[in-house]
Design goal:
With about 170 residues, this protein is mainly alpha-helical. The protein contains eight helices and two strands, in the order αβαααβαααα.
């Protein structure tokens, strides 16, 4: 969904009673995973990923290479094209355990997943995001966090709410 525009969503919504399930990953983690995935195989290393992420931080125009990280655009397009009752928003960090999936099952009008069938989260292929780089990416993506906070408020997972604030960067070594 992250690459579709309003016209695409309207077209999809016109097909019967289509429902939309959107899973959002913490923005800095999402961008980090995108950077990793788009690196050429020869450069796919922790050092290569850090170098590219630092380039993006230094030149925010490079975010255009990672359109999936523009959650504000996705939110705008989807909510204007599709009846809100047909859209279900989930956070990646919440996709663990049967109880967490209960609201999704109710939305889809399907039985809840049996405890023994609860799937684990997908295996991550990218290395862990270094903490200082996480801070920089969170600052870069501040408009995304702000849009998600405005839309979801207290429903945002703790990791999203604990992001580094712009005025705190000045004191960083």
């Amino acid at each position: 969904y992250a690459l579709l525009d309003m016209a695409d969503f309207k077209d999809m919504a016109s097909i019967g009673w289509a429902r939309f399930v959107v899973v959002l990953r913490e923005p800095a983690e999402r961008l980090w995973a995108q950077i990793w995935a788009l690196l050429p195989s020869a450069a796919r290393s922790l050092e290569g990923c850090i170098a590219r992420a630092e380039e993006v931080v230094a030149d925010p125009a490079l975010l255009a290479d990672y359109p999936e990280s523009d959650y504000a655009r996705l939110l705008h397009a989807l909510e204007r094209a599709v009846d809100p009752g047909r859209v279900f928003w989930l956070f990646h960090e919440e996709l663990t355990g049967r109880a967490a999936l209960q609201p999704l099952c109710e939305f889809l009008e399907i039985p809840n997943i049996l405890p023994e069938n609860t799937p684990p989260l997908p295996i991550r292929h990218e290395p862990d995001l270094p903490p200082l780089l996480r801070d920089d990416l969170q600052l870069l993506l501040a408009p995304q966090y702000d849009a998600m906070e405005a839309r979801f408020g207290a429903r945002l997972p703790a990791l999203w709410r604990a992001r580094r604030q712009p005025d705190r960067k000045a004191g960083r070594p």
